[in-house]
Amino acid sequence: MSETVRKVGIVGIGNVGKAAASAILHENIADELYISDIDSERAKGEAWDFADSIEVTPSRTRVFEVPLEGLAQCDVILVSVTERSQIPQGSRLELLKGTAAIAYDIVPKLREAGFKGIYVIATNPCDIITYLFYHLSGLPKNQVIGTGTALDSMRLRRQISEALGGIDPRSISAYMVGEHGDSQIAAWSHVRIGGQSLDEYEAENSDRFGKLDRDKIEDTARHFGWEIHKRKGNTQFGIGNQLAFFAKSILNDARNVTPASVILEGEYGQKDVAAGVPIVLGRDGVKEILHFHLSGKEQESFNASAELIKGYIDQTLAEREGTAAQ
Ligand SMILES: NC(=O)C1=CN([C@@H]2O[C@H](COP(=O)(O)OP(=O)(O)OC[C@H]3O[C@@H](n4cnc5c(N)ncnc54)[C@H](O)[C@@H]3O)[C@@H](O)[C@H]2O)C=CC1
Ligand SMILES: CC(=O)C(=O)O
Predict the structure, then answer these.
(1) pTM of structure
(2) What range does the domain containing 60 cover?
């Protein structure tokens, strides 16, 4: 019998990395989990702490602390590095200089070490960092994926669920698209409640809910991260579980439809940019990009969001390499 060992790596074992690692162990997603951090002593402590818990988790995942290059053997590397996780003025874009510098440091080293697997990136600003990983890694675009608007879309579904009397968010299909940031937009034209369009569902149930306040729901979902951030100083479990879900979908070739930040080459009218759109996620990473025909206003906002991301990508490439995105 041939033996397939599922190997997942995490680079950056802080708030987010630890939440992802815990989810991986509790859901038996990997046979071997490799963790790496610039602070290798702390990472070793985390690895040993996780190893102590294996007997009472459903998995027998072996956990190792490794230097960065030790991650090159993994099928999937989850990226949760950052220079600082605090964002005083509330924009993820403020992290760009620090996290771009980390990308320029670690991606060439992993390339040199022979990493040929799939990157899943949570590090903010997520879309720009995803593009930089693609640009620096030499990997095909299907193998470089940002979590993008996946977390925002869960927040959106939860807000819709609450407005509709608690209907299970898993029975709601609703996506935030564009930037994992302030310019993201809800694709209201494609919201479905158990397959029924939201307009039809609202009309059928007008005596129970009336018309949803879409602007308020969208705005709450868009900014929900800050409500958590200002109370506990970070967000970690939503995204940690999301990273684990991405790893599981890839390793199991699950072919889930999920929002993710991916490299666009003409899809949604955009090129040379990474932005959040619905994809099919499986063994090769991005198996397919779903093309929603957005309403005119949604497409306009999506274009503005993508242009904003592209502006920061171009600025970063110009500062670091004296070139713009190709
Ligand atoms: N995409 C999303 O939906 C979300 C993204 N995030 C982002 O995830 C990132 C991580 O956040 P936290 O875990 O709270 O930060 P943290 O500060 O707790 O952890 C970051 C870790 O990265 C390590 N690190 C820094 N430079 C490194 C390098 N060159 N090589 C290896 N390790 C290095 C640090 O030592 C630290 O352990 C941030 O960029 C944050 O904004 C957080 C929540 C949601
Ligand atoms: C911090 C962040 O990006 C979030 O929770 O959405």
Answers:
(1) 0.97
(2) 7-146
